[in-house]
């Protein structure tokens, strides 16, 4: 009997202790859960949950934010990365599920930051789940160096900007100097640009490339963004899908390129698509935004895996230093990641600091562009200007200063009335279904029907 | 004084069973019922809208059999066909090869050496994860992959098999075949070894050849196991998901020809839960019927038959 009582007593003590410990962790933040937006610095949450779809932001965060963080808000906060793939709308589905629980979730489980891609930014920007930047304490003046088109994209119908990004994404055509030299007689970016300055000229060069045994582009989807970012109206208006003339033009052009053998018939991100960046491959160039260099091209084109210390990042390693960049036939942009503060967060001070350091701080953003492994064209006119003035050169592009080229292109970008909330699925499905038409497995009408049928499963509320 | 009431321990049996039933009710029964209810609802979720105040979901309430009609027509109806075709393409060679291997391994006259080694070898693919195998095959058959290069070198065919409806289906069937023929072989071998060897001995003495023995003795006697293999494979087949998904990257590429029923559930569960639930219920019913057949066939009814016989003879005696 005594033993039993002893055991019960012990159990009670243990349980009580655990409960106390559970509370103890939050001593400074116990009130954080119900803190209002005007909460003072001291009442910040101890966990920062960030929803993302790849490690892009995480890498930049660790490299550029952590060393520059405001210690008073950053120290002691645990960063939680919740990663789900973009493909097939998985990221959006998981994020939406979490958002629906946001109001009932405990303070540490609430989403604090989530990232949005251009293809579905509209959905979240227009929603009440995002906190306007002004409410966090980020002023117009802080954002003055950002490109207008990025601000515009992330501005909700009430005229409030709700997301901010560290990258501007003007498009490029990146080509191989060795092939250019051989076929076009020059590898100078200005001269090459002259020869491909519009789509007709581009096709002429493609024909030359074909005769010399090369492909102008690797895959079917490579030129998609040239058209999809120049549409006259978004994919969806009032729940009705319209195939814009630009999209139709992409289909027509890609079919022509496929039939004539101007492309290698690969798919975006495929193994073969990546392999086509190698030295012994036969592809002249790739359409990329600046993020493409570090995200894909740099690693895929070298023979010897690049080391962290950068010792083998030099000419002679595969095609390192053999690529050049030019604006290409059509100005376009591709991608771009917005950082959104989620309504209900208990880390507003920290989020403000992250946003300021990562997307407004000229010094940080300058280092981001200059960094060999990042090379983002940062969303900061001042940083880019300073780099150009300092005589920036890019060793990967054989010492070319491609920033100067992009400055002009970035200023001209305009994304207004081009984005809808459904773009992710629509872009993905039109590419995958039209591939069958390009390959000759289906007719255009059959492929289009399959596209609509895929969309019906994904977005049953849309009509066409 | 009367005899003391005996202590019943039976209640403990029930008490210890409670956790199971509790877990079953929460995690299986309730979802089943709720799926059933949802399958009669017309619900659309707008994937392009999110808000704390407004609802993403539009529920138009009870819609009769509308969702079930959708399951048997149009795109989802085609998925029935895709699933059946891919299952058949995999199952037919599987059962033939397995029967052949099982017959050889158990043949008294062949006396194959290193049987254990071969049995293990045949069974080995079954241990592999289906997703890993699909991923491997995707790499081999896609543009620039090993098998693609071989086909290209030999035939000059530039296309990719995975881009062709029948090519892709055949690859799915091939993977399913490779994964499961070993398992079926082992099952059939066990069945054949269960046959009384004296039957084969007397057949040999009577001058029967191997093929006669196979068709006249083995086949009739292993029929229940054959049926079991068939139906378990059917149940697995109707739930086919991982292999085609990984080869087709969830879109059923090329042209939805790899889209199976379970892939349809996955593709629709977020946007049209009503239709997704209806597919679930249809699969549930089909599986239940197939399971019922196995149960009916493999159930030992010798006692009942004996009882019936006794009854009959008793009647006759009267």
Give a topology summary:
The complex is a heterodimer of chains A (464) and B (318).
Chain A: H1 2-24, E1 47-52, H2 56-65, H3 71-74, E2 78-83, H4 90-101, E3 113-117, H5 118-125, H6 133-136, H7 148-153, E4 163-164, E5 171-176, H8 177-184, H9 189-195, H10 199-211, E6 217-219, H11 224-228, E7 236-237, E8 240-241, H12 245-260, E9 263-266, H13 271-275, E10 285-289, H14 291-301, E11 323-326, E12 337-341, H15 348-359, H16 362-370, H17 381-389, H18 402-412, H19 423-438, H20 444-458
Parallel strand pairs in A: 1-2, 1-3, 6-9
Antiparallel strand pairs in A: 3-12, 4-12, 5-10, 5-11, 7-8
Helix pairs in contact in A: 16-17, 19-20
Chain B: H1 10-38, E1 41-45, E2 57-62, H2 66-72, H3 74-106, H4 115-123, H5 130-141, H6 146-155, H7 165-193, H8 197-205, H9 210-221, H10 223-238, H11 242-248, H12 261-268, H13 273-298, H14 302-317
Antiparallel strand pairs in B: 1-2
Helix pairs in contact in B: 1-13, 2-13, 3-7, 3-10, 4-7, 5-7, 5-11, 10-13, 12-13
Q: How would you describe the overall organization of this protein?
A:
The complex is a heterodimer of chains A (464) and B (318). Chain A has two domains: 42-168 and 335-389, Periplasmic binding protein-like II (D-Maltodextrin-Binding Protein, domain 2, 3-Layer(aba) Sandwich), CATH 3.40.190; 172-332 and 403-458, Periplasmic binding protein-like II (D-Maltodextrin-Binding Protein, domain 2). Helices cover 44% and strands 11% of the residues of chain A. Chain A is built from 20 helices and twelve strands. Chain A has helices at 2-24, 56-65, 71-74, 90-101, 118-125, 133-136, 148-153, 177-184, 189-195, 199-211, 224-228, 245-260, 271-275, 291-301, 348-359, 362-370, 381-389, 402-412, 423-438, 444-458; strands at 47-52, 78-83, 113-117, 163-164, 171-176, 217-219, 236-237, 240-241, 263-266, 285-289, 323-326, 337-341. In chain A, strands 2-1-3-12-4 form a five-stranded mixed beta sheet. Chain A has a three-stranded antiparallel beta sheet with strand order 10-5-11. In chain A, strands 6-9 form a two-stranded parallel sheet. In chain A, a hairpin with a 2-residue loop joins strand 7 and strand 8. In chain A, helix 16 crosses helix 17 (381-389). Chain A is globular, with a radius of gyration of 25 Å. Residues 13-42 of chain A have low confidence and may be disordered. In chain B, helix 5 (130-141) packs across helix 7, helix 10 packs antiparallel against helix 13 and helix 12 (261-268) packs antiparallel against helix 13 (273-298). Chain B has 14 helices and two strands, in the order αββααααααααααααα. The model of chain B has no long low-confidence stretch (mean pLDDT 87). Chain B has a two-stranded antiparallel sheet with strand order 1-2. Chains A and B meet through helix 4, helix 5, helix 13, helix 19 and helix 20 of A and helix 12 of B.
């Amino acid at each position: 009997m005594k033993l039993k009582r002893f055991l019960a007593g012990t159990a009670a003590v243990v349980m009580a202790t655990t409960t106390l410990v559970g509370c103890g962790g939050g001593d400074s933040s116990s009130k954080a859960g119900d803190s209002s937006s005007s909460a003072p610095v001291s009442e910040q949450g101890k966990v920062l949950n960030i929803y993302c779809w790849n490690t892009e932001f995480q890498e930049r965060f660790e490299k550029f934010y952590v060393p520059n963080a405001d210690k008073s808000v950053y120290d002691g906060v645990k960063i939680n990365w919740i990663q789900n793939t973009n493909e097939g709308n998985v990221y959006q589905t998981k994020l939406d599920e979490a958002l629906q629980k946001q109001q009932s979730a405990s303070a540490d489980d609430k989403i604090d930051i989530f990232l949005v891609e251009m293809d579905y930014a509209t959905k979240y920007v227009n929603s009440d789940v995002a906190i306007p930047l002004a409410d966090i304490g980020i002023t117009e003046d802080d954002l003055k160096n950002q490109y207008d088109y990025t601000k515009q994209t992330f501005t909700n119908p009430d005229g409030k900007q709700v997301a901010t990004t560290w990258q501007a994404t003007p498009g490029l055509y990146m080509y191989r100097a060795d092939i250019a030299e051989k076929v076009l007689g020059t590898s100078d970016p200005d001269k090459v640009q002259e020869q491909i300055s519009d789509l007709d000229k581009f096709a002429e060069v493609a024909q030359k490339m074909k005769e010399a045994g090369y492909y102008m582009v690797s895959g079917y989807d490579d030129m998609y963004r040239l058209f999809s970012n120049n549409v006259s109206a978004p994919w969806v208006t009032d729940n009705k899908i319209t195939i814009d003339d630009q999209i139709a033009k992409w289909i027509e052009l890609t079919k022509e390129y496929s039939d004539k053998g101007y492309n290698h018939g690969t798919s975006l991100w495929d193994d073969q698509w990546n392999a086509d960046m190698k030295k012994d491959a036969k592809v002249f160039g790739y359409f990329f935004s600046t993020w493409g260099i570090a995200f894909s091209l740099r690693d895929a084109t070298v023979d010897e895996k690049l080391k962290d210390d950068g010792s083998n990042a030099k000419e002679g390693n595969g095609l390192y230093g053999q690529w050049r960049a030019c604006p290409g036939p059509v100005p376009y942009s591709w991608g771009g990641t917005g950082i959104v503060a989620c309504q209900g967060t208990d880390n507003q001070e920290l989020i403000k600091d992250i946003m300021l350091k990562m997307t407004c701080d000229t010094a940080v953003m300058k280092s981001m562009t200059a960094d060999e492994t990042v090379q983002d064209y940062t969303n900061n006119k001042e940083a880019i200007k300073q780099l150009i003035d300092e005589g920036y050169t890019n060793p990967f592009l054989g010492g070319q200063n491609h920033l100067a080229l992009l400055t002009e292109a970035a200023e001209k970008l305009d994304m207004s009335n081009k984005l809808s909330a459904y773009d992710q699925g629509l872009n993905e499905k039109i590419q995958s279904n039209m591939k069958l038409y390009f390959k000759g497995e289906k007719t255009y009408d059959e492929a289009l029907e399959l596209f609509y049928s895929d969309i019906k499963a994904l977005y049953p509320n849309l009509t066409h | 004084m009367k005899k003391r009431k005996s202590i019943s321990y039976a209640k403990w049996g029930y008490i210890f069973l409670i956790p199971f039933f509790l877990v079953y009710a929460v995690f299986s029964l309730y979802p089943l019922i709720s799926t059933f209810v949802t399958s009669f609802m017309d619900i659309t979720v707008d994937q392009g809208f999110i808000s704390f105040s407004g609802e993403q979901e539009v529920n138009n309430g009870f819609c009769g059999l509308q969702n079930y009609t959708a399951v048997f027509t149009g795109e989802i109806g085609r998925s029935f066909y895709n699933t059946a075709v891919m299952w058949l393409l995999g199952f037919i060679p599987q059962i033939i090869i397995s029967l052949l291997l099982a017959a050889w391994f158990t043949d008294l006259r062949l006396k194959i050496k290193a049987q254990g080694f071969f049995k293990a070898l045949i069974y080995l693919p079954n241990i592999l994860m289906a997703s890993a195998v699909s991923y491997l095959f995707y790499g081999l058959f896609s543009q620039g992959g090993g098998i693609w290069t071989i086909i290209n070198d030999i035939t000059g065919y530039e296309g990719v098999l995975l881009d062709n409806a029948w090519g892709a289906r055949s690859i799915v069937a091939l993977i399913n075949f490779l994964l499961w023929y070993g398992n079926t072989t082992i099952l059939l071998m066990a069945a054949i070894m269960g046959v009384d060897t004296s039957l084969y001995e007397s057949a040999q003495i009577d001058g029967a050849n191997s093929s006669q023995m196979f068709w006249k003795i083995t086949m009739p006697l292993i029929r229940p196991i054959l049926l079991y293999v068939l139906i378990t494979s059917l149940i697995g087949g109707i739930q086919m998901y991982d292999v085609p998904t990984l080869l087709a990257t969830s879109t059923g590429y090329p042209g939805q020809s790899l889209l199976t029923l379970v892939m349809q559930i996955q593709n629709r569960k977020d946007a049209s839960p009503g239709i997704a639930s209806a597919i679930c219920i249809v699969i549930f019913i089909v599986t239940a019927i197939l399971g019922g057949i196995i149960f009916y066939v493999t159930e030992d009814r010798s006692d009942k038959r004996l009882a019936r016989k006794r009854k009959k003879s008793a009647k006759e005696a009267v």
